[in-house]
Design a protein that fits this description.
Blueprint: H1 2-14, H2 22-33, H3 42-49, E1 52-60, E2 68-71, H4 77-80, E3 87-91, H5 97-100, E4 101-104, E5 109-112, E6 123-130, E7 135-143, E8 156-162, E9 170-173, E10 186-193, E11 200-206, E12 212-218, E13 229-238, E14 245-255, E15 263-264, E16 268-274, E17 282-285, E18 288-289, E19 299-303, E20 314-316, E21 322-325, E22 336-345, E23 352-362, E24 370-375, E25 383-385, E26 393-400, E27 412-416, E28 422-426, E29 432-436, E30 447-455, E31 463-473, E32 481-482, E33 486-492, E34 500-503, E35 506-507, E36 517-521, E37 532-534, E38 540-543, E39 556-563, E40 570-580
Parallel strand pairs: 1-7, 8-14, 16-23, 25-31, 33-40
Antiparallel strand pairs: 2-5, 3-6, 4-5, 6-7, 9-12, 10-13, 11-12, 13-14, 15-18, 17-21, 19-22, 20-21, 22-23, 24-26, 26-29, 27-30, 28-29, 30-31, 32-35, 34-38, 36-39, 37-38, 39-40
Bound molecules: 2-acetamido-2-deoxy-beta-D-glucopyranose (9 copies).
One 2-acetamido-2-deoxy-beta-D-glucopyranose (NAG) binds near residues 412 and 414.
GO biological process, one term: epithelium development
Subcellular location: Cell membrane
Keywords: Calcium, Cell membrane, Glycoprotein, Membrane, Repeat, Signal, Transmembrane, Transmembrane helix
């Protein structure tokens, strides 16, 4: 049946050569009919009909239309005896001779009718039957030209590598194909661009089908965190001169592997929270990042309860890292909370990091600072001796947080109210010392009210004030003083022993025992002090014995006032006593003439002359001392 069809195909074909003589047609039909063999193809019947020789012609592909390929009968008609043109042209079925070649059967000239393409059809076959002699089997071979570039099946190819893929691992890429033959086929590949840090290289090998197969190999180490993707432009070149090229973009996605642990943006976090903070109050936020992608880079936060905050005073939001108050805080119970916070990624094999969070609880109710004063006196009471020299310390001042008991630094402490007698000194702005600036005198000012004010530059500013009531203590720096230097007293000669003569008073400006006065009389026998006595406490002078105007009309006393200080101080005063004679009897003079001299400024009532009665022992007249 195949032959039948061929025959029909041939018949229809030969219809176009109606000019051919009927005779030849019949000849051919006979030849076919007589072919009892199974050999297919037109050659069979031609061989039966006549002997055949082969005429091979070559033509490069792509030559212009109308290009002369050659002649059928050239060189052959001499030896083989074909009769030359004209020919009956019989194309081999399916060889497209009719469409692509123009054959002049009268001359045997073959020309191209279309642009030939070896890659479409590499040869043409026909049988030329001369009027006599051997048939010519004509084969026109189309020669290859480099008219095809290597071509990748797709312009873009996407592949993926996990970032921990070892070096030299291969991935097959779609190879480029080039329809041309031999050296005009694909010869090599190269990466034109996109190969950051030479991460990849190409390798290729040719297989039996002639295709140059292509592999992409890892040339180094992949790190998604550094380069997450590559876009390589791969070029294929053939062996032409110049070579033709084809390109393909290879998009490479580096797949994440959990090779990075979360990293906190601080290794330690600090925060303070007032102790009355309500539950849920946010204290601070910790923050960690993980360079990995997807779940490998998603960070979850937790408090490590095994190591910290077992009481769950605080809690942390796993997603945001916000730490908030979970239970009522109490400054007095716990002032500092140290939390160990863990950041963990959500990879299959998670990685984690820890950070430390210090939360200081502040005492809100009691944050008023207090000024702490320590007096440097022997019994730590607010006093200073009036003998204190400038520069001597009075008190130590510091400003304390009463709850933490820590002393504030850089506090500005000022002092007022000392009238310049007191000042402040500090070396470190933490401890201040109150010092004496000017000499003190208790007898002038026995006490001072000093005001201490502490401020700082904080926000809110620290402000505290305190008054100090400072007593100046006494030293025995004043002797008793008599109200007068000289006292005058009168006493009747007849006075009984014990009669009051005069009370002297001395005053001591000191206080206490330093001003407790004891009076005494100095023993002066020549001025008859023994006639008198003095009360040591009251200073009252009384007679002690009978006094005698004639013996001494003006006895003179030296009184001493001594205080009870240590050592005691004393002073003296003079008492002049005038003794008055009292006589109510008729006087009997023992002398008829008394010769007495009296100073003109002599005080009134003074004994200037004692006139004794006759019975008394005559006494020598007494003259006035001055
Ligand atoms: C191949 O050749 C046939 C005729 O022989 C033609 O019709 C066709 O267009 C050609 N194809 C190409 C790709 O040149
Ligand atoms: C390939 O990568 C390039 C550059 O990154 C991008 O513009 C393009 O859209 C990618 N193509 C595909 C198919 O992923
Ligand atoms: C905490 O105490 C301070 C001072 O007493 C007060 O001003 C503040 O309002 C209190 N806060 C809360 C949440 O009770
Ligand atoms: C760390 O992150 C926290 C929360 O976002 C932020 O408050 C803090 O300022 C950051 N610290 C640094 C050093 O960037
Ligand atoms: C302390 O206060 C005084 C008086 O207000 C001021 O003159 C002085 O500059 C202050 N010192 C400091 C360190 O603030
Ligand atoms: C303090 O001294 C004044 C005199 O400057 C005095 O009047 C006052 O009584 C004294 N106060 C005390 C408590 O000693
Ligand atoms: C005062 O002196 C008396 C007697 O010398 C003594 O007993 C007393 O203790 C002294 N008082 C003081 C306060 O020193
Ligand atoms: C009295 O005495 C003075 C000197 O003592 C003497 O000069 C004078 O003469 C005397 N007078 C009589 C009258 O004796
Ligand atoms: C009288 O005057 C003398 C000399 O001027 C003087 O020394 C004497 O103390 C005075 N006597 C009296 C009691 O005033």
């Amino acid at each position: 049946m195949a032959e039948c069809k061929s025959r029909h195909g041939y018949s229809s074909c030969s219809n176009r050569h109606r000019k051919m003589s009927l005779l030849w047609l019949l000849l051919m039909i006979c030849a076919f009919s007589g072919d009892s063999g199974g050999g297919g193809g037109p050659g069979g019947f031609i061989r039966l009909a006549a002997a055949e020789h082969v005429r091979e012609l070559e033509v490069s592909e792509g030559v212009p239309i109308g290009h002369q390929i050659g002649f059928i009968g050239e060189f052959v008609h001499d030896e083989n005896g074909d009769s030359g043109p004209p020919y009956l042209i019989v194309p081999v079925p399916g060889s497209a001779v009719d469409t692509d070649l123009a054959i002049d059967h009268t001359t045997g000239e073959i020309r191209t009718k279309v642009a030939l393409d070896r890659e479409n059809r590499s040869s043409y076959s026909l049988v030329a039957i001369p009027l006599s002699g051997e048939n010519v089997r004509v084969v026109v071979r189309v020669l290859d030209e480099n008219d095809n570039a290597p071509t990748f099946p797709t312009p873009i190819m996407s592949i993926e590598f996990p970032e921990n893929t070892p070096r030299d691992v291969k991935r097959t890429l779609n190879p480029a194909r080039d329809a041309d033959l031999g050296r005009y086929n694909t010869q090599r590949y190269s990466i034109v661009s996109g190969n950051v840090n030479n991460a990849f290289r190409l390798s290729s090998h040719r297989e039996r089908d002639g295709v140059l197969y292509l592999d992409l190999q890892i040339n180094g180490f992949l790190d998604r965190e550094t380069t997450p993707a590559y876009s390589l432009v791969v070029e294929a070149l053939d062996g032409g001169s110049p070579p033709l090229r084809g390109q393909m973009t290879v998009n490479i996605t580096i797949q994440d592997v959990n090779d990075n642990q979360p990293i906190f943006n601080q290794s330690r976090y600090f925060a303070t929270v007032p102790e009355n903070a309500t539950l849920g109050t946010t204290v601070l936020q910790v923050y960690a990042t993980d360079q990995d992608a997807g779940e490998n880079g998603q960070v979850e936060y937790a408090i490590n309860r095994r190591q910290s905050d077992k009481e769950q005073m605080f809690r942390i939001d796993p997603a945001t890292g916000l730490i908030s108050v979970n239970k009522p805080l109490d400054f007095e119970t716990r002032e500092l909370h140290e939390l160990v916070v863990v950041a963990k990624d959500r990879g299959m094999q998670p990685l984690e990091t820890t950070a430390f969070v210090s939360i200081r609880v502040t005492d809100v109710n009691d944050n008023q600072p207090i000024i702490n004063v320590i007096f440097l006196s022997d019994d730590a009471t607010p006093k200073i001796s009036e003998s204190a020299q400038p520069g001597e310390f009075v008190a130590r001042i510091s400003v304390n947080d009463p709850d933490s008991r820590t002393e504030y630094a850089n506090v500005n402490v000022t002092l007022s109210g000392g009238e310049g007698h007191f000042g402040l000194t500090t070396r470190d702005n933490i401890i201040y010392l109150v010092i004496v600036s000017l000499p003190l005198d208790r007898e002038i000012k026995p006490n001072y009210t000093l005001s201490v004010i502490a401020t700082d530059t904080g926000n809110p500013p620290l402000h505290a004030a305190k008054d100090i009531f400072l007593t100046v203590t006494d030293i025995n720096d004043n002797a008793p003083e008599f109200e007068k230097d000289v006292y005058h007293a009168n006493v009747m000669e007849v006075a009984d022993p014990g009669t009051s003569v005069i009370q002297v008073t001395a005053v001591d400006r000191d206080e206490g025992n330093n001003s407790a006065i004891v009076y005494s009389l100095l023993d002066t026998p020549d001025t008859h002090s023994h006639w008198f006595q003095i009360d040591s406490h009251s200073g009252l002078i009384t007679t002690r014995a009978h006094i005698d105007c004639e013996t001494d009309p003006v006895p003179q006393l030296i009184v001493m006032a001594q205080d009870n200080g240590r050592p005691p101080l004393s002073s003296t005063g003079t008492v002049l006593v005038t003794i008055h004679d009292v006589n109510d009897n008729e006087p009997i003079f023992d002398q008829s003439f008394y010769n007495v001299s009296v100073a003109e400024n002599e005080s009134k009532g003074r004994c200037i002359l004692k006139v004794s009665e006759a019975r008394t022992t005559p006494q020598s007249p007494q003259t006035v001392p001055h």
